[in-house]
Design brief:
The protein is α/β, with parallel strands linked by helices. The chain is built from eleven helices and five strands, in the order ααααααββαβαβαβαα.
Length: about 290
């Protein structure tokens, strides 16, 4: 619902004439809904920015929030939404910061009275509804972006690449290995191989609950990519149940070395590099 030019002018006059009262009452109503989660000074600053933007927009005779001259008001609403989303407020708490203006308007209109004031209130409410909807949409977009960023960070945290020995890195996998996570594993492993110059990589699947054809394909692709970088891969964590599943599915790892545990895989790599460990070294020293 768009305002007429006359209605827009009356709104500008109302907001200008009662500026201090509007911002004060608006701040009080919003503060009650946020229950002290935002400082009074910060909240008042936000309300004043909204109030000033509305004065500017309505003073320019803007009839609709989508109008080009309403860009400043949209920017203020978008910034409010982004800030609230990052601070952990809900969509409802954010929208109330806009819709609370209706209560302020109603109080002012009741003092004036008359049918004209009622029509103005309905028209002004339509603009506030547009602002609330825009705020909600901006909030949702920001929250979705935050969730996507957090999911990516969790993927990275859940796929660490650690250096076990000079020239030996390991990727301990925990949980389900889907396509998105497999891509992160491959990228992090290849980058670590480049950074460290390691010729050996151990992919440990002890924490992977089950290995099906899809998981096996992801692992094999990672091994092939590592080989293209000049590194040999050893797969560790082949438990009896997983070994039976692999055989039943007819999955072939070819010439890829597999070991029952990460320790076995590390010993295997150390033998390949000529490093003597444990009992063998003690026997030679004896």
């Amino acid at each position: 619902m768009a305002l007429s030019a006359e209605e827009s002018g009356r709104l500008a006059g109302l907001l200008t004439e009662h500026a201090e009262r509007v911002t004060q009452r608006w701040t009080e109503i919003v503060a009650g809904s946020l229950r002290g989660r935002l400082s009074q000074a910060e909240l008042r600053r936000q309300v004043q920015e909204l109030h000033q933007s509305m004065v500017t927009v309505s003073g320019h005779g803007v009839l609709d929030l989508e109008a080009e001259r309403a860009a400043e008001l949209r920017a203020v609403l978008a910034e409010l939404s982004r800030g609230r989303a990052r601070q952990g407020f809900s969509a409802t708490e954010t929208a109330i910061s806009v819709f609370a203006f209706k209560d302020v308007l109603l109080e002012l209109m009741e003092e004036n009275g008359g049918a004209a004031s009622l029509r103005d209130y309905v028209a002004f409410s339509g603009l506030v509804d547009q602002m609330g909807l825009f705020t909600f949409e901006s909030f949702v977009r920001t929250r979705e972006s935050l969730i996507a960023d957090q999911a990516e960070q969790l993927l990275e945290l859940s796929t660490p690449v650690v250096k076990l020995w000079e020239g030996v890195v390991a990727v301990p996998l925990v949980g389900t290995l889907d396509s998105a996570r497999a891509q992160v594993v491959m990228e992090r492993l290849l980058q670590t191989l480049v950074d460290t110059g390691s010729p050996y990589a151990i992919i440990d699947i002890t924490g992977v609950p089950a290995v099906d054809t899809q998981v096996a394909q992801h692992i094999l692709k990672t091994v092939v990519a590592a080989r293209l970088m000049g590194a040999d891969c050893i797969i560790s964590g082949i438990r009896p149940q997983i070994a039976q599943t692999i055989v039943a599915l007819g999955i072939e790892f070819g010439d890829i070395a597999t070991k029952a545990s990460l320790a076995d895989a590390l010993r295997h790599v150390l033998r390949l590099t000529g490093v003597e460990t444990g009992r063998r070294q003690l026997r030679r020293e004896a």
